[in-house]
Amino acid sequence: MTPLFIDTSALIALHYSQDSSHAKALHILESISQRRCSFYTAVNVLIESLTIISQRVNKHYAVELLDELRSGKYTIVHPSENLISEAETIFRSIRSKNISYSDCISFAVMRMYNIGWVFSFDIHFKKQGFKRIGIDGKLQ
């Protein structure tokens, strides 16, 4: 099974029909469903996604997303001290003021779990050497 990290931008695009990447996200999701993938995300992604969906769509829909993410289909990584230390190193090393600390946690998770593919619309993942499924390439 190919490990695939799910980022906030993908979850928002999938669950918020007004998002500019909504149609693309649905198309990517369809292609993912035809592959054998193991899905990973991190608690920081959960926090961001649930907050945004609750505010932009509604609380009920955010709770449904929470239930989906906690259903056992996803491995949700809770950052350890080592992972946080790696995220801090990444955050300090990136010169751009537009990088989020949350993304750095996600990068650290992906490195620690040896995950090369991400479902994301965020260019920072590509800049860190990860491949965005449906944008930078297709899973084989």
Can you put this structure into words, describing what you see?
Helix 5 (81-93) crosses helix 6 (101-112). The termini are close together. The protein has a five-stranded parallel sheet with strand order 3-2-1-4-5. It is built from seven helices and five strands, in the order E-H-H-E-H-H-E-H-H-E-H-E. The model has no long low-confidence stretch (mean pLDDT 93). The protein is of the alpha/beta class.
Q: Give the overall pLDDT as a whole number.
A: 93
Q: Compute the CA-based radius of gyration.
A: 14 Å
Query: Major sheet: size, sense and barrel closure?
Result: 5 strands, parallel
What is the strand arrangement across the widest sheet?
A: 3-2-1-4-5
The parts where pLDDT drops under 50 for at least 5 residues are: none
Spell out the helices and strands N to C. EHHEHHEHHEHE
Number of strands: 5
The number of helices is 7
Oligomer: single chain
Describe the structure in brief.
The protein has 140 residues and is of the alpha/beta class. The chain has 7 helices and 5 strands, in the order βααβααβααβαβ. The chain has helices at residues 8-15, 22-33, 43-56, 59-69, 81-93, 101-112, 123-127; strands at 2-6, 37-42, 74-77, 117-119, 131-132.
Topology diagram in text:
Layout: E1 2-6, H1 8-15, H2 22-33, E2 37-42, H3 43-56, H4 59-69, E3 74-77, H5 81-93, H6 101-112, E4 117-119, H7 123-127, E5 131-132
Parallel strand pairs: 1-2, 1-4, 2-3, 4-5
Helix pairs in contact: 1-2, 1-3, 3-4, 5-6
